[in-house]
């Protein structure tokens, strides 16, 4: 620590910044460069993806056949909880923030993020949070085991691991809020001259709205877990009916955060897809303005649908009807987006490089997740499917085939700009096809399991569910191993630096500023002089 | 875009303070998790982490102040700071919204439900479900906090402090430093008095009203809402004091003093939260 603290020779702030960039580890620790920080976000996210993936594979190994084989039920609950928390807060969200860091300044022609130091802190809070969260496995009572939703009263009854989880969430929330303030301010204040709001690339638009959602709901999550903490240790009665509170109140507050949260994890994915498809269809995005309005509508609607996660908790009928119809309304702007992507491809001169494969794959598989979501939105139907594997299938279709596939699409799309080296197209195609097949092998059978009545979050099941579970487990291991191929492809570009040198504009249909104005790789400091946008 | 032609956006050099802050939060969070579960050692980790956090903020913000006074920030940076502070206050609004939501939920839904027909006849025959309530299982009698004593006085204090702060701001705009310092000092004095009354009120609640944090949902919402507000007032007072010291140090210009304005925005926000607290926690 002392080595960190006693250096203070940076009062010479000449903003041209040609001097005193630490090298080695300290370059990454002290950096204020959006590209460095974006890179760290992306590697952090991939590390968390692997950790969360190992937890998922342990779950699938246990569920390969009925009975208890590998883990005991208490630990199984920790696995499902930690898998969810790590994937949501450690893998998916930081990955999109990594994209935002790299791409937003490049796409709007800004020299860096608006608050470069705070940007560093937003990132460096994440390893702290991850450390706290993962260390909870090693305290008495183990990791949080109440599900990623940490519902009261279960979360009130657990050991110190729950406190570590709560503090980890607090810190990740602080990171998200600071990151979002930075992103919003950058977008609103640092666009190149001439780039009006309605000329911004779709990816920037989706992140503007996502950042708004994050600032609106992360503090609500902080409130909910603070209440959990005081109920656990300081005798408050928020979630205790004997004291006049209500465990159901936790669900309301949590899902007021939680539903916008799921859009936080998909809107930037929509943004990436909206960049990739026009580039490979060699046509401008169809219905740009309607895309903007659809994204905004989704964001607004996301605040008034939360109780569709609580259809079986015992709400008044009027409430159930309201939340059912409001939820179904979301299908309209989402449909606008899907049809716009299809119309963008219509009569385009398309080629299918890996980013485009992932984008088209995204549309197919994400739309299936959207349809199952629509079915779950139907309250009388949901009563049958609540807490079954149907729900698990649904949200993995939107989170893995939605968010994660978009992250892959975006990585392949931009890695030539980031590293200056083209990825291996053959391996990329293998990665796509293996991912698509194994994804469906893993999660498609879960629809049948759920409809047949298999509950989620259980380590053991009735023997009639065996075959589908075995198929799912085989698929899961295939999917997990496939991601090592992705790791190799990325390492080949970024660390091994093997492969064709990337031209400034490897995709002839891509027309945003990072392709038209910057070489590949993008220089460490870009857009010192802002370009003029016509 | 004239400022664009003049100069580039300020991008700071690499800095060490952020990683120091991360370690501070690691110590605080890890220490609190130990402390809350009975390991006394955790308390020292929390204290050490907090000290480190304060040190980090002093040094980091010190850098920002030096940059600001050194003329590194122009119009464009100023706009960034304005957006940044606005969105930060919005996040605070949402944080308080969660706790107000809990209060309204308890008053409108959970407590009346517990006093409703089914629960009452089956479980709690003598529970009425009237607010203020500490829930059906709470047998220890308590008195709620009355609105028209100290709380009303506190409302007056905070509202006045909004006015004095605005007068101080006028002093700043006119370049009248004496006016700035005097009225800023008065604002801080009003804030500190508010906090003193608040501490007196808590003492009164614990010693005479038998009203505690653990007094069911009433005690819970009362102390958590007023407590978080009090914490924000404390932070506000610290920030105002910093502004006072900076005024004495000759910082700020009539057209370049966003730090002061940001603190004023924050102070007014805390003021508005108090008005809502006064209405929904104390009065109605």
Task: Please tell me about this protein's structure.
The complex is a heterodimer of chains A (534) and B (284). With 534 residues, chain A is mostly helical. Helices cover 67% and strands 0% of the residues of chain A. Chain A contains 19 helices and no strands. In chain A, α8 packs antiparallel against α10, α8 runs parallel beside α11 and α10 (267-281) crosses α14 (354-377). The longest helix of chain A is centred in the N-terminal third of the chain and has 36 residues, at 73-108. Chain A is globular. Chain A starts with a helix and ends in an 18-residue tail after the last helix. The model of chain A is unreliable at 1-18 (pLDDT under 50). By secondary structure, chain B is mostly helical. In chain B, 76% of the residues lie in helices and 0% in strands. In chain B, α4 packs parallel to α9 and α7 runs antiparallel to α8 (216-248). The longest helix of chain B has 40 residues, at 75-114. Chain B is globular, with a radius of gyration of 23 Å. Residues 1-6 of chain B have low confidence and may be disordered. Classes of the chains: A mainly alpha (534), B mainly alpha (284). At the A-B interface, α2, α5, α7, α8 and α9 of A face α2, α3, α4 and α8 of B.
């Amino acid at each position: 620590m002392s080595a960190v603290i006693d250096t203070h020779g940076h009062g010479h702030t000449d903003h041209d910044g040609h001097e005193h960039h630490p090298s080695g580890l300290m370059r990454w620790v002290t950096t204020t460069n959006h590209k460095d920080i974006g890179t760290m976000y992306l590697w952090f996210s991939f590390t968390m993806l692997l950790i969360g993936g190992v937890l998922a594979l342990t779950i699938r190994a246990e569920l390969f056949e009925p009975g208890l084989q590998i883990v005991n039920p208490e630990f199984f609950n920790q696995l499902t909880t930690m898998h969810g928390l790590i994937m949501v807060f450690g893998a998916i969200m930081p990955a999109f923030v990594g994209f935002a860091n790299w791409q937003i300044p490049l796409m709007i022609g800004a020299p860096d993020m608006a608050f470069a130091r705070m940007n560093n802190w937003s990132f460096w809070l994440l390893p702290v949070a991850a450390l706290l969260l993962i260390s909870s496995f090693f305290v008495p009572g183990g990791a949080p085991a109440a599900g990623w939703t940490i519902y009261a009263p279960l979360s009130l009854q657990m050991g110190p691991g729950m406190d570590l989880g709560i503090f980890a969430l607090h810190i990740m929330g602080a990171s998200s809020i600071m990151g979002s303030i930075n992103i919003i301010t950058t977008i609103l204040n640092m666009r190149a001259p001439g780039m009006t709001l309605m000329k911004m690339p779709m990816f920037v638009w989706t992140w503007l709205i996502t950042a708004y959602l994050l600032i609106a709901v992360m503090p609500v999550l902080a409130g909910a877990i603070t209440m959990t903490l005081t109920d656990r240790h300081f005798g408050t009665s928020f979630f205790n009916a004997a004291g006049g509170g209500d465990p159901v109140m936790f669900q309301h507050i949590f899902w007021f955060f939680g539903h916008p949260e799921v859009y936080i994890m998909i809107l930037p994915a929509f943004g990436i897809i909206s960049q990739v498809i026009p580039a490979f269809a060699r046509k401008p995005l169809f219905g740009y303005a309607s895309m903007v309005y659809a994204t905004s509508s989704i964001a607004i609607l996301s605040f008034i649908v939360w109780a569709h996660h609580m259809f079986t908790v015992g709400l008044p009928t009027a409430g159930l009807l309201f939340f059912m119809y409001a939820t179904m309304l979301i299908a309209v702007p989402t449909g606008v987006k899907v049809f716009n992507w299809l119309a963008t491809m219509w009569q385009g001169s398309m080629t299918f490089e890996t980013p485009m494969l992932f984008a088209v794959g995204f549309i197919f598989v994400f739309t299936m997740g959207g349809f199952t979501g629509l079915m779950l939105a139907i309250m009388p139907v949901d009563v049958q499917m609540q807490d079954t594997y149907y729900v698990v299938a649904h949200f993995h279709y939107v989170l893995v085939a939605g968010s994660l596939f978009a992250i892959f699409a975006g990585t392949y799309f931009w890695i030539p700009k980031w590293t200056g080296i083209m990825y291996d197209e053959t391996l990329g195609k293998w990665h796509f096809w293996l991912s698509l097949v194994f994804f469906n092998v893993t999660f498609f059978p879960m629809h049948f399991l759920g409809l047949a009545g298999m509950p989620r979050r259980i380590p053991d099941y009735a023997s009639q569910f065996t075959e589908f579970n075995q198929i799912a487990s085989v698929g899961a291991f295939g999917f997990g191993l496939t991601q090592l191929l992705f790791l190799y492809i990325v390492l080949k570009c970024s660390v091994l630096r093997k492969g064709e040198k990337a031209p400034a504009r490897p995709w002839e249909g891509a027309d945003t500023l990072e392709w038209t104005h910057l070489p590949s790789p993008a220089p460490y400091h870009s857009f010192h002089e802002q370009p003029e946008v016509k | 875009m004239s400022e664009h032609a003049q100069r580039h956006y300020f991008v700071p050099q690499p800095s060490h303070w952020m990683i120091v802050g991360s370690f501070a939060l690691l110590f605080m969070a890890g220490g609190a998790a130990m402390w809350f579960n009975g390991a006394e050692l955790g308390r020292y980790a929390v204290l050490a982490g907090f000290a480190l956090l304060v040190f980090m903020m002093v040094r980091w913000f010190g850098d920002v102040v030096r940059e600001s006074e050194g003329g590194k920030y122009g119009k464009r940076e100023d706009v960034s700071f304005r957006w940044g502070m606005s969105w930060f206050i919005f996040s605070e609004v949402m944080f308080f919204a969660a706790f107000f939501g809990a209060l309204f939920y308890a008053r409108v839904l959970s407590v009346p439900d517990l006093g409703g027909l089914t629960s009452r006849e089956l479980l709690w025959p003598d529970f009425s479900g009237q607010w203020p309530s500490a829930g059906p299982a709470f047998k220890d009698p308590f008195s709620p906090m009355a609105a028209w004593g100290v709380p009303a006085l506190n409302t007056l204090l905070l509202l006045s402090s909004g006015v004095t702060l605005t007068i101080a701001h006028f002093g700043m705009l006119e370049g009248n430093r004496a006016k700035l310092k005097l009225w800023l000092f008065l604002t801080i004095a009003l804030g500190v008095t508010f906090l003193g009354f608040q501490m007196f009120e808590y003492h009164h609640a614990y010693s005479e009203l038998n009203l505690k944090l653990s007094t069911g949902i009433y005690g819970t919402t009362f102390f958590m809402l007023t407590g978080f507000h009090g914490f924000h007032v404390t932070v506000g007072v610290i920030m105002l004091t910093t502004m006072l010291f900076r005024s004495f140090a000759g910082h700020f210009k009539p057209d370049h003093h966003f730090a002061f304005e940001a603190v004023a925005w924050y102070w007014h926000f805390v003021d508005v939260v108090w008005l809502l607290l006064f209405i929904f926690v104390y009065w109605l």
